[in-house]
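Incident log, structure service

09:12 report received: a user says their structure output differs between two submissions of the same chain.
09:20 pulled the input from the user's history:
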Amino acid sequence: MLVGKITHNVGRFIQKCGDIVILAGQRYERAGAKPLVYYIRSVLRNGYLSAVERLFRRMRVTCPCCGWSGYSFRPFDMWRYYIPDSVCPHCGSHPRHRFLELYISRRCQDALEAGGHCLHVSPQREGRLRSKIKEIPGMKVFHTDVESFYLREIRDHCFLSDLTRMPAPSETFDIVFCIHVLEHIREDRKALAEIRRILRPGGTAFIMVPFGFESLKTTRELDEPDVFGHVWHYQPDGVRERLTDFEFSEVKAEDLLTPEEMRRYGVFHREDPAVKDSCREYMYHCVRPE
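09:34 re-ran on a clean worker, output below:
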């Protein structure tokens, strides 16, 4: 029995190594040496962290999305960038998911518990959020995306739409969640105007976007989508300028969490010099004026 177990584990290890070699070759062929280095670095870091957790049982971080605890979150290999301590190995949450989870639980409970009609834009990207708002009594949740592929796991209250041309009547929804969506839309101002149109007076839109994957002073539109399909690299000034038709507040991670909580939950913050702009988490709490 012991020999069989050892043989099984050795077989899995060899298969895993083979998969790593294949992926490394594909990475080098598609993108060159630097992304390959990031991939190898990520694989080695993941192996080290898994060993530390198994051998020493040191638990320094906790994922608020799934409850997992461990020594460290895993690195996020973004091809051209490498972000350490980012991904939860249990549920796959990123800093934005954990920040969103904490923001909703600490700042949004009253608004959500009031019930009404909620629109979740591109729900496939935010599976944990989809589950959380579905459980709220009195909340009727609708889901939309521009492609049917991303709605395949949702059974009811979903429809296809372009966020710049929504089929919903004006003043339909009390709450709209638009999390990491606008950066994929060329006509992002038109999309924001549509969100405002379908919100009821006094309704709330929760909006998040990633901030440029390089050190930019201004928001920049890309000629071609980047590797993530983004056509905008935002900076906070550019987002604030686009939200002037709302009454909005900009909530940073450090406005919601203590430094110790940010380390424990793996939510990056502005004062960390090792973190790129793309890692900083901001929530835009936007209200349609009465």
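09:41 both user submissions now match this output. Likely a transient worker issue. Closing.
09:42 reviewer note: Residues 96-287 form a domain with the Rossmann fold fold (CATH 3.40.50.150). The chain has nine helices and 13 strands.
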